[in-house]
Write a structure and sequence with these properties.
Number of domains: 1
CATH architecture: Up-down Bundle
Number of strands: 2
Distance between the termini: 37 Å
Number of helices: 21
Structural class: mainly alpha
CATH topology: Growth Hormone, Chain: A
Order of helices and strands: EEHHHHHHHHHHHHHHHHHHHHH
Strand order of the largest sheet: 1-2
Largest sheet: 2 strands, antiparallel
CATH superfamily: MFS general substrate transporter like domains
């Protein structure tokens, strides 16, 4: 302990003197708001695709199925490649953009990468809100996807590099917390705009993404750059000054020397992605890939994207369907706070194991109820079974929110050495 702070323990057993300074807390909270944009983009599409006016304009075939009520199967009225492209194009673009983001985070810094993301999103929002045809709509989603790929690369890195070791987990999970808040906000917006008659409901839902995009631009202009990034780009004086600021002490020689050594090793790596293929980087790479794969395979996107449609099949009316989606988002936010509190106390692994069991049980119950009670002849459940499914979905969302959701971003940002960190985070 030193001056009310604590010592963090990096590699080689060397302890660095550090305090929990206001500038670190404020910078991490501000930077984590990049997750708001991601969460809103995730949450908004499910409600928008349930709006009749949106379907009527862009997907008249689907609108005809919904309006007529004629369908061969409970889940087939939205079986349309164009509609699926609207949802998935954001992620296809994000997948591509994240590799470019690896370059910008390494060469330009974490802050400029956030700024680039905000600019992509502003243009994407304008195209989406003003869309006159499907091509314009998809183009906007692609730009939004680019805007998602850049902050998902830069923000977790920023948080991990600026936070003291002992509270790094909790501060890093602020990104995921903002993702859940963004999803909840999107559900609330959809709940309100769905009641607007005419064509303006869906336009307002898509256009409000601009708030989070503008916020990210402001954030990129306000936060400080990380010492790691400054040292990595040869700005040694600035890097040392920022390190003193965020650690709240002038005794930063040990940590700064450590950064210099790590940066020197990183500069020897001319091709970070090629370096990842070396056997000494396989364990970190395997863990990072596996975490992200299994995070997606938990089925969370089926819930977050299609919650309104899912609840419609349970017999909820249109209002009740959106209300249930809002309830799911409301469970998501406080459950992420649980992770912030426990991740540095309990550890990463116990949370992953406990939540895996909890999610499996929830999904098993949901599958059994659907398999027995929902058929081609009956696409709704009795009140008792509908409530049971709702409870199990909330139980599932809670488990994901305090485990695989935030830890899927946190752990990869911690385990890669500096020379392959940006490349590893991209993968």
């Amino acid at each position: 302990m030193a001056g009310g702070g604590f010592a963090t323990a990096p590699a080689h057993g060397v302890e660095f003197e550090t305090k929990i300074t206001p500038i670190v807390i404020i910078s991490c909270i501000i930077a984590a708001t990049g997750g708001l944009m991601f969460g809103y983009d995730v949450g908004i599409s499910g409600g928008v695709t349930a709006m009749p006016e949106f379907l009527k304009k862009f997907f008249p075939v689907v609108y005809g199925r919904v309006k007529s009520g004629a369908k061969k199967h409970n889940y087939c009225e939205c079986d349309n490649q164009g509609l699926q492209l609207f949802t998935s194009s954001l992620y296809l673009a994000g997948l591509t953009a994240t590799f470019f983001a690896s370059y910008t985070t390494r060469k330009l810094g974490r802050r400029p990468t956030m700024l680039i993301a905000g600019m992509f999103n502003i243009v994407g929002v304008v195209l989406n809100a003003a869309a006159q045809d499907l091509a314009m709509l998809i183009a906007g989603r692609i730009l939004l996807g680019c805007g998602v790929g850049f902050p998902n690369q830069a923000v977790p890195l920023f948080l991990s590099e600026i936070a003291p070791t002992r509270i790094r987990g909790g501060l890093n999970i602020l990104f995921q917390l903002n993702v859940t808040i963004g999803i909840l906000f999107a559900n609330l917006v959809n709940y309100g705009t769905a009641k607007i008659e005419g064509r303006w409901g869906w336009r307002l839902s898509l256009g409000l993404t601009g708030i989070s995009a503008l916020l990210l631009i402001v954030v990129a202009l306000l936060v400080i750059e990380t010492p790691t990034s400054l040292v990595q780009r040869g700005l040694l004086v600035e890097g040392k000054n920022v390190l003193r600021q965020i650690r709240g002490t002038v005794n930063v020689e040990l940590e700064f020397t450590n950064l210099l050594e790590a940066s020197s090793l990183a500069k020897e790596v001319k091709h970070p992605f090629r370096n990842l293929s070396q056997s000494r980087n396989w364990p970190q790479l395997l863990i990072a890939i596996a975490l992200q794969i299994f995070q997606q395979w938990t089925g969370i996107n089926a819930i977050m994207f299609y919650a309104p449609l899912l609840f419609s099949t349970l017999g909820f009316g249109s209002d009740a369907s959106l209300y249930s989606a809002v309830l799911t988002g409301a469970v998501n936010v406080p459950s992420t706070l649980v992770s912030i509190y426990f991740v540095d106390k309990v550890g990463r692994r116990p949370l992953l194991l406990e939540a895996g069991i909890q999610m499996f049980f929830s999904q098993l119950v949901i599958a059994i109820v659907h398999g027995i009670k929902v058929t081609d002849h009956s696409n709704s459940l009795s009140k008792g079974f509908a409530v049971l499914v709702e409870v199990m979905i909330c139980n599932y969302v809670a488990a994901f929110a305090w485990s695989w959701g935030p830890l899927g971003w946190l752990i990869p940002s911690e385990i890669f050495p500096l020379e392959t960190r940006s490349a590893g985070q991209s993968v």
